[in-house]
Amino acid sequence: MAKDGLNTEFRLVGTRPNRPDGLDKVTGRARYGADFSLPGMLHGAVLRSPHAHAKILKIDTSKAEALDGVKAVVTRADFPEGLEGEDWNLQENTMAGDKVLYDGHAVAAVAATSKLLAEEAVRLIEVEYEVLPHVIDVDDAIKPDAPVIREGASDASVPEGMPPNVVRYMEFGRGDLEAGFAAADLVRENTYKTEATHQGYIEPHACVGQMGSDAKGEMWVCTQGQWFIRKMCCAVLGLEASQLRVTPSEIGGGFGGKTTIFMEPLSLALSRKANGRPVKIVMSRSEVLRATGPTASGSMDVKIGMKKDGTLTAARAEFRMQGGAFPGAPVDMALYCGFAPYKLDAVEHVGYDVLANRPKCAAYRAPGSPMGAFAVESLIDEMCRELGLDPVEVRMKNAVREGDQSSYGPKFGSIGLVEVLEAVKGHSNLAEPLGPNQGRGVASGYWFNHNGETSVSMSIAADGTVQVSVGTPDIGGSRASLSLMVAEHLGIPYEDVRVNVVETGSLGENEPTHGSRATFASGKAAILSTDQAIKEMCRRAANEWGIDPEAVEWADGAAQPAGPNAGKFPPMSIKEIAGKMGETGGPISGHHESLPEGVGASFGAHVVDVEVDPETGLTKILRYLVVQDAGRAIHPSYVEGQYQGGAVQGIGWALNEEYIYGEDGRLQNPIFLDYRIPVASDLPMIDTVIVEVPNPGHPYGVRGVGETGITPPLPAIASAIHQATGARLRHLPMTPQKVRAAMKAQDS
Amino acid sequence: MNYHLATSFEEAARIAANAGGTTRFLAGGTDVLVQMRAGMVLPDDLIDLKAIPGTDAMTQLADGSWQIGVAVPGARLGANADLCRDWPGVVEGMELVGSTQVQGRATLTGNLCNGSPAADSVPGLVAAGATVVITGPEGSRELPVEEVPTGPGKTALNKGELISEIRLPARGDNAGDAYLRFTPRTEMDIAVVGCAVSLRLDGDKIVEARVSLGAVAPTVLLVAEAADAIIGTTLDDAALDALAAAASKAAKPISDKRGSAEYRIEIAGVLAKRAAKIAYGRAKGDNK
Ligand SMILES: Cc1cc2nc3c(=O)[nH]c(=O)nc-3n(C[C@H](O)[C@H](O)[C@H](O)COP(=O)(O)OP(=O)(O)OC[C@H]3O[C@@H](n4cnc5c(N)ncnc54)[C@H](O)[C@@H]3O)c2cc1C
């Protein structure tokens, strides 16, 4: 639902044509990671650690190597030494060195002529382990007697004397906290915990890697970022980046989890050892859950001061997060986002990034923000209830606006939180009466959005149609949005533009499709590329007309004399100019590369109604509303899809999803039967409202929309359950069993 | 692995009796094939039963009882109006298994012989008083369904024995059954607790009842005390409370990733009450 007038300014932007990749996807023609095959290709399989933490005493691969059909076996000995920092982390995560650090950590890999043979060979590899004590929970990992995962892993930010598993420490804020809390009528402090969850993308990781003894190689891979794959594989294997060409496949979901490497370097290492024969590796679902990158788990203390009228006076957050056996838990992002919706004069943040014996976390949709929101938004709701205040009004009263200093430092540019909250207040869902055992919860959410290295080319074909080459894989409909913007800009039909996601040999470096950046950054760069082509087409027309290029303008898909003084010439269409470009100076194209400026942040607010079965504790989602600022919705259906998808992942995180570990440190639920993502019948239709406060930093006002939506569901559902049952759950997930236990504790 | 396509139960029994290593029968394959793909079970002999004549038949005999072939897929149960009228609780147990796609293959026999304490169709069969016919090298025998599973993944079948038919008794008048399971999700999930109740009325009074619980012990349970708690009553609140107490008392679950023992014990009682109410309503003529 756009604000009146906004959509009508455009011919195409804001319409909902079919996505260009749609037919391929619904007919099964689209090529995903596992669909690539090459002549002479081998199949890889990976031996993974059954232990959470163990010393590798010996690896004997002789029996595997002796098996007929086995062409290569690799262990860490096949990787270069001496890496440092994140490169070392990536290498260590790709293949264990002296120790295995989590259940599922790769220990060896095999390439053979069939997948079955490769799997059989893996079973023949003998590994001697010395099992070490392990630690899983973040609060346990910072206890003084916790097993040390890696001596010396801490960076310079960690003060002297902290437990060794604390590898990064941060502290920032402003204002007089004590005075702020003293000015409050109510000060409350609570601890909240979230469990690790997985992105749960439908498509498991898959790649085909080929690497010759000349150190030149190729890779076909399912990824959010082909240049990241190239950079990371080359770092881990000691290769030169330009010698590896990486082609992305279609992608069956990523949500941040496919912005890094897992088994990809193994296919190259195996290929190199197998005389350059290509090696395909396709992960199983249990490998995906055990050995790719879930999100971090968090333990979070929040303290807030509130006046009787709802005004916030001060806030403090201390977050501890584990992101697996390597640094990188998004505790910083969680802290930045937690208080972002609120205008605060006194605020303090403290963060600990902690190691635990779990897989190396990867990005997951607004990394960190959902955890921060769970803690902060839950406490705000609890305080609203205590003071009898309306949770939407309190959010409105304290809402940040353009020009306000954010809780984490920078001043906000144009933002739409107030408009979002207005739209929430006016929505019919809030007027729905609630029955017995039902409750309503409200929460806000925030994501910065991101620009990132961007390189885009476009060119005009001789028939006047247009191709655009981008480096950001299309996860959420970005080809449709980019086509719409370029067609709008050129004044040509949507169908005349084809957007291709290209391989690393075709463009300069591009960051992945992450940070909700593809429609913003590749979109902006595509428009700026198109401007170059338009300029050139105007020059060609001016030449023909014998007038000054400055006297030609581009309108309605054609070069036109700019005003009556320029002379009288009939418009020269893109087709006409393109048709003769061979004689008028050659190909016409445009290119733009930059770190596009003008990122626009996106605020959202969700309202959820639940009903809790008082006897079983089962939560049913009755109604769900997402309201979020898109800046401008280029293709509203795909914006709504992002809102709905984010909400659903958040619902799963809130209610049932979690990594469950046994006493032995092994993951208990590496299968979708027991890792419970919501199924369609668990959900109502997710209602959406698109608020449009245009981002002045983008030609069409685009903000990223992909990530904010996963943030509010966690606290909104906790608050709704509170209203329905009287019980407040501060530890996710809110499974039926936990809700029932909280209700019983309440009764007694 | 050797794949055998048996054409009679006797042949299947002979192959199984003579097999050396791990043997599996192949009905719908929705357990066996999944376990093979996951590397959990790698059978040396896989004996396909679907080509045996009659295994896809489902027949109601003149006395009102039912014979269900060992390869009848779950989807066929719900499509049979007479069976749905007679044994709605048995049908709804099978209909909870997996999805439409899974039910195109999955069988009652496979569900029973896979030996999962959480198998969804088994409590309904137990409450119904169903039996199985077993064919083996020494001939045939009949066994009540509740005596087939002996522990997780284990059955009372001896080497070379297999089930050749499932039998459901005649339903008779003024009777109803129901199955409920509790899962965190609405579908594609595994029972935290399952409960089936079958009962017969004389007027408003319950004169016969069988209550069965799933996922609360190493095998599906037949709980006589729970049935006794409602026999002779009109399923008033006191009877329901006694039923819940008896069901909870009979539950001997473990704590695992799917639920704590304490929670399962509590839910066993909740489900028993709810299933009994539905069965009672059905016996009274509700067609829900
Ligand atoms: C996606 C999915 C969801 C599922 N959801 C559920 C669910 O919700 N609830 C549930 O209970 N189950 C569920 N299952 C498990 C499975 O579908 C059921 O247990 C099904 O009923 C098994 O029947 P089948 O015919 O496929 O058995 P098969 O896989 O063919 O066989 C299962 C076992 O029974 C043995 N067997 C088969 N026939 C005979 C015979 N005549 N005599 C002796 N032994 C025999 C086999 O040796 C094997 O050990 C699910 C499975 C999948 C894949």
* Most residues in contact: chain pair: A-B, 23 and 18 residues
What is the topology, as strand order, of the major beta sheet of chain A? 3-5-1-12-9-10-11
Distance between the terminal alpha carbons of chain B, to the nearest Å? 46 Å
Strand order of the largest sheet of chain B: 4-5-10-6-7
- Calculate the mean pLDDT score of chain A and round it: 97
The shape of chain B, in one word, is globular
Supply the CATH class of the largest domain in chain B: Alpha Beta
Indicate the CATH architecture of the largest domain in chain B.
2-Layer Sandwich
Rg of chain B (CA only)? 19 Å
User: Which distinct ligands sit in these coordinates?
Assistant: flavin-adenine dinucleotide
Percentage beta strand of chain B: 25-35%
Question: Helical region count of chain B?
Answer: 11
Total strand count of chain A, please?
Answer: 26
What low-confidence regions of chain A span 5 or more consecutive residues with pLDDT below 50? 1-8
Question: How many extended strands of chain B?
Answer: 14
What does this structure look like?
With 748 residues, chain A is an alpha+beta fold. Helix content of chain A is 28%, strand content 23%. Among the domains of chain A are: 22-30 and 451-594, Aldehyde oxidase/xanthine dehydrogenase, molybdopterin binding domain (Aldehyde Oxidoreductase, domain 4), CATH 3.30.365.10; 368-449 and 599-747, Aldehyde oxidase/xanthine dehydrogenase, molybdopterin binding domain (Aldehyde Oxidoreductase, domain 4, 2-Layer Sandwich), CATH 3.30.365.10. Chain A contains 20 helices and 26 strands. In chain A, a hairpin with a 5-residue loop joins β13 (297-306) and β14. By secondary structure, chain B is α+β, with helices and mostly antiparallel strands. Chain B folds into two domains: 2-116 and 131-168, Uridine Diphospho-n-acetylenolpyruvylglucosamine Reductase, domain 3 (2-Layer Sandwich), CATH 3.30.465; 175-283, CO dehydrogenase flavoprotein, C-terminal domain (Enolase-like, domain 1, 2-Layer Sandwich). Chain B has eleven helices and 14 strands. Chain B has helices at residues 9-18, 32-37, 74-78, 81-86, 88-95, 100-103, 108-113, 122-128, 224-230, 237-250, 261-283, and strands at residues 2-5, 23-26, 45-48, 58-60, 66-68, 131-136, 139-144, 149-151, 154-155, 162-168, 175-182, 193-202, 205-214, 221-222. In chain B, a hairpin with a 5-residue loop joins β4 (58-60) and β5 (66-68). The longest helix of chain B is centred in the last third of the chain and has 23 residues, at 261-283. Chain B starts with a strand and ends in a 5-residue tail after the last helix. The chains are: A alpha+beta (748), B alpha+beta (288). Chain A binds chain B through residues 119, 286, 615-616, 618, 655-656, 660, 668-669, 672-674, 676, 678-679, 681-682, 735-737, 740-741, and chain B through 38-39, 182, 184-190, 257-260, 263, 266-267, 270.
